[in-house]
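hey m, so remember when u said the tokens were messed up on ur end? i reran from scratch. heres the input so u can diff it against urs
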Amino acid sequence: MHRAEVVPGLAVDQDLYETAVRGLREHAPEDNLTWAAFTSSESWTLVPDAQGRGYKGELVLRREESRTRKINLWFAPDLRDGQTPRPHNHPWEFTSHVLSGGYTEQRYALRDGRVVTETRTHTAGGANHVPLDVYHEVTAIAEPGRTLTLMLCGAGRQGAWDYLDPETGRTYGSAADPGFRDRLVALNPRMRP
């Protein structure tokens, strides 16, 4: 089986590639993906967690004002504050098609002045629609390094990331993480000046 280390800490193989191609054919047939693009260090970005470890790889296929298409390869949950819940929303509505593996998501909502939670599990073959007003976190990955998703995102709203305090129900805008850019560059050699 063909295998390629795209950047240190992010490796892909023929099975993942074929899974991505099948997913595109089914959910976004206007987008194509070649093996060369799938294995290029220029295509992928390894996204760091707060400790500087890559928790997912992102391959952007298309970024336009009205839509974005990207493949995510998940290694760990998206827990932005370690083990303390820090649910976030997104600046775009999206549907995530689970192409392989799966993940667990915790959703948060305000009902009658208090925060309620709902746990959802998403598995291969399923889809997860996330509207603009949903606050969530990905809390577990079923198969780290084998969970592949295809995100089909609508038009984005600039700077519209928000967080929800699960204790108080208050929302607040995202403050820039001063160390994020340094952690991102450390994981992605092509971004170094």
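this time it looks ok to me. The first strand starts at residue 3 and ends at 7. if urs says something different then somethings off w ur setup not the seq
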